[in-house]
From TrEMBL, chains A, B, C:
The keyword Kinase applies. The lineage of its organism: Bacteria, Bacillati, Bacillota, Clostridia, Eubacteriales. GO terms for molecular function: ATP binding; hydroxyethylthiazole kinase activity; magnesium ion binding. It comes from Pseudoramibacter porci. InterPro entries: Hyethyz_kinase, Ribokinase-like. This is Hydroxyethylthiazole kinase.
């Protein structure tokens, strides 16, 4: 059922404007290409409005924000909203500094992104909960697990109701929530957390999936992107030689996305709906 | 005949100053090393003049331009000109925003780069033709093909005559033109367009090849760089496992450049002269 | 004996704040993860104090410095000092421009980093010696060799005594020096110099190793990081297929760090103490 969003993205080839961090930007560009979309990166105040206008979706990632790029995020975000383009916010490191928390909240309130994707600590920081980021990683105490699953889903659904955004919290268990629906996704491998930027990559690909989908199906498209990333992580891991590690694993995950099709995703996707 | 420029670059080991985008900069640095040259990246207004002065060539790429780096491009470009260093302009995304088009034209007019390398839509945007960029990709309607080849060559030769630059338009068919000569190059694979930054990489390597060549042979050195990139793309593709995709392919192309020698290039280069 | 610092880093999982260049930043993040630590990159003046405060160590790399990031380096450096966090300075390109030389000296004097790691030309530039950088590479005339080994060690010990920093000069032979002790390290391969950023990667990993070690053992932890990088380079090289080159080699070195353990390092480390 989610596989169709893989095909749809390849068919529609959405053009995605990314204002993103310089740490993982190359991988973000390659995974957007791998899923059949096209990336463009632009963060200068004087051109972001024009760039966003020719695109289909906007991916805002605050990973290495500065005052110049924050201004660009706001300008591009407002223009994307005006044009009814999809906007995704990845609040990298929200909770780690007040600048990040403040900026992410400001984008959330003023731009009202269609999707917010982060780790659970970042989402909690946005929701004024006890989210204690460990830098750009989620705090162990915040982790979604079998024992707090119902409570976590209730929190994310409530946050979705409050903000109007699809809310995606990824980790060992991934949750993709609207105000009244939730996907609980079990794809992926723990080793993915030893690669920098799997979250950033997922946000870029998710912007593409959601931009390619009909408006009423955005929740499913977001869930399909999460399953694609996780399934790619599983497929890629199976191809690793014993001496290969996190750097090669990163390449192979993008490779697996490059080969992903609807049939494979429908076979590999592991999720429940609540 | 073009293979000698591979050897020459390895022998001369030119030092290349790059003011380039943060998306593909790591691959640009690695391919410059792979072809036997040395890269240095520096974009601060207060040091670009000094950095360019110790280098042999300057690669200006506007892929993630901002007002600070635009000023640096002009300062470095003027200093490189004054010192008779090779200057290459890669007008990434010209046509996608007026800032990019304007900046690329300003560099073209004030710095008079020795080489301009872009996709055909970017070149058309510089020439005030109907170039309609699709973000950083060429528009399908602009593509150079068998049916419009003569017309495309005539356009690029005229643009070279007007600007004094060697003009290189890469795509399925690559064209390397001076005012009165053209190389039509058939190396490369369609899958290369699914990797971010093959164009940026080529521009970096081309700056190295042209910087290492005698002034009268710059057109041939530029053509040799295009053939090297394309042949590396073919060699790399042959080494891909069935499950490998665009991310690994990117690495393998740089690897193939690392192994390129004059004999291999002379065997693999596929071009006509017009 | 040095292997224990591999285990200690994996056990302590230090969080490392990096203000570093955009060329090699992704590899720096992945190698910090590979050695068991966690990276965070942040360079905005308004947040670097907060980010450094939640971290265990600070890695300052001037590879693509600009006035905004120089200010951030000073703020973060002073805060890290105040909190007794480990600070490492990588003076990329010191000697190549007066801005770089001046900035690196200013950081050295005002922040008094615990460790300075560069190539021998960069260290000489900081010490007002005849260091003649060739861009970001050491000058051949400066190279540490068997014939000038005693003299090089004496110079670095004296510079360590003068600055109070552990001084690390890497190249074909690596030297890790305090005022009265020196490790002369023979791990690594010449092919590593054809990869962009092996020095930057080492600096990031070294910040993690030193941050995880007891204060009295920082010299050993720094030496362990050098041996880990060199041994990883040897292990990775053994896994390269004949057609693989510098781009794949870069991935495989990080992979080998990901697999490094104390036993392997104790077997593979090749050094003398003087």
């Amino acid at each position: 059922m989610l596989g169709k969003y893989v095909d749809l993205t390849r068919e529609k080839q959405p053009l995605i404007h990314n204002i993103t961090n310089y740490v993982t930007v190359n991988d973000v560009a390659n995974i957007i290409l791998a899923c059949g979309a096209s990336p463009i990166m632009a963060d200068e105040v004087d051109e972001v409005k024009a760039i966003t206008a020719i695109c289909n979706g906007l991916n805002i990632n605050i990973g290495t924000l500065n005052h110049r790029t924050i201004e660009s995020m706001m300008i591009a975000g407002n223009e994307a909203r005006r044009l009814n383009h999809v906007v995704l916010l990845d609040p990298v490191g929200a909770g780690a500094s007040s600048l990040r928390t403040r900026t992410a909240k400001h984008i959330l309130e003023e731009i009202e992104p269609d999707v917010v994707r982060g780790n659970i600590s970042e989402i909690k920081a946005l929701a004024n909960q006890s989210g204690k980021a460990r830098g750009v990683d989620a705090d162990v105490g915040d982790a979604v697990s079998a024992s707090n699953l119902d409570q976590s889903i209730a929190f994310l659904k409530a946050f979705s109701a409050e903000t109007g955004s699809i809310v995606v919290a990824t980790g060992a268990i991934d949750l993709v929530c609207s105000a009244d629906e939730a996907f609980v996704i079990y794809n992926g491998r723990a080793e993915m957390s030893r690669i920098t930027g799997t979250g950033c990559q997922l946000s870029g690909m998710m912007t593409a999936f959601v931009s390619a989908a009909p408006k009423a199906e955005r929740l499913y498209a977001a869930a399909a992107a999460v399953c694609t990333m996780g399934a790619a992580g599983e497929i890629a891991y199976a191809h690793l030689a014993p001496y290969e590690g996190n750097a090669t694993y990163c390449r192979r995950i993008i490779d697996a996305v490059d080969h992903m099709d609807s049939k494979t995703l429908d076979q590999e996707a592991k999720y429940e709906r609540q």
